[in-house]
Design goal:
The chain contains 6 helices and 6 strands. It has 191 residues and is of the alpha/beta class. The longest helix has 30 residues.
Length: 191
């Protein structure tokens, strides 16, 4: 059977930081069940939403930039992992721009996919959780509660034992969910 696809979308401006560390760890835990890909938003030219309402009448965005590369990746993936550090109490502006530019996908194009998140911060990270949860709800994906990592300096999260345990639990939950889906799909075919 063909492997499912999982993408880890990182909103951090820093490579080799805490957010990438946790994202890599989760993708590595999933690699036996999923074909994985890591996407750094900083490597893409993504304009902010222009509130032109073009997507109200069309199933696409009017802005032609690097989001055109990312839309197919979202549609092809069964698992979407959003990862962001917390800046000024919320997710990064890169992640926010990415989210805004997927507004046309809220009409159910990603329905039945699974979404989760990784948030890294030093303190008060509650607003980031709310932003991620709300976004996944608007996309109509099946949400799984994400992982919170605490750290400021490079590799601080590698010492966050709770976050590392939560990554293990999350990977098992995701794998179990997709094994159940495959079993149900096979049972439906038999019937």
């Amino acid at each position: 059977m063909e492997k499912k696809k999982a993408i880890g979308i990182i909103g951090s401006p820093r490579k080799n930081g805490n957010t990438e560390f946790l994202t890599d760890r989760l993708l590595n835990l999933l690699k036996d069940s999923f074909e994985t890909e890591k996407i750094f938003l900083k490597d893409y030219n993504i304009s902010s939403c222009q509130e032109c309402y073009y997507c109200m009448d069309h199933d696409e965005c009017s802005i032609k930039d690097d989001m055109q590369i990312l839309y197919p990746k979202l549609k092809e993936s069964q698992l979407i992992i959003l990862s962001s550090p917390i800046f000024m109490g919320g997710i990064t502006s890169r992640m926010r721009a990415f989210m805004e530019r997927t507004w046309h996908l809220r009409k159910g194009q990603l329905k039945d996919k699974t979404g989760t998140y990784i948030i890294v911060g030093r303190r008060n990270i509650g607003a980031g959780i709310n932003e991620m949860e709300e976004y996944l709800s608007r996309l109509k994906v099946n949400k799984i509660a994400g992982v919170l990592g605490f750290g400021l300096r490079e590799r601080d999260v590698s010492k966050d034992e709770e976050a590392l345990k939560d990554l293990q639990k999350l990977s098992k939950q995701i794998t179990s969910l997709y094994q159940q889906k495959e079993k149900l799909g096979q049972d439906m075919i038999i019937l």
